[in-house]
Amino acid sequence: MKKILLPFLIYLAFISESSLMQALLPQENNMEWQFIPRFSMVMILFIAIYLNSTYGLVYGLGFGLLTDLLYTDIIGVYLFSMAATAYITSVFSRYLFGNLIVTLLLSIVGVAILEFFVYGLNSLIGISYQMIDMFLYKRLLPTLILNGFFAILIYYPYVKQLNLLKDTLKEN
Description:
Elements: H1 2-24, H2 26-29, H3 39-50, H4 53-71, H5 77-94, H6 100-125, H7 132-171
Helix pairs in contact: 1-3, 3-4, 3-5, 3-6, 3-7, 4-5, 5-6, 6-7
Organism: Fictibacillus arsenicus
Membrane topology: Multi-pass membrane protein
Subcellular location: Cell membrane
């Protein structure tokens, strides 16, 4: 049951991203900033930090593919970006002590890496024509703030679940 709970929680976060996206779109709200919820990515980053890089990579590939299939026309941008971000974050976490502050900083850095990967790949392909300064101000900064608050909200209950799952995996 504990093994099924983890993908289910990430899937709920993934579904809530699209619901919040509709509420936070700047075109509908006449807002200057673009708040992009990356809740499933934050949860995957926690997995990469607290379990291991393999789980983070697999969940990054799975939910990256799901994001590509549902929201983009080109398959592979989020697939690559989410998996690479989870792996990079897990490598950084090996050298740092996993407490609240470090985990929050790593998750914010991970979301920033994801956003830069997606921006860079979309610019390379020719999908995005947004200038880098506008990207930094209008999209990256609000996205990091929103996902930082989400990481703070889920930290204690989610890390508790991850530690229980880690203990279960050690027993088996």
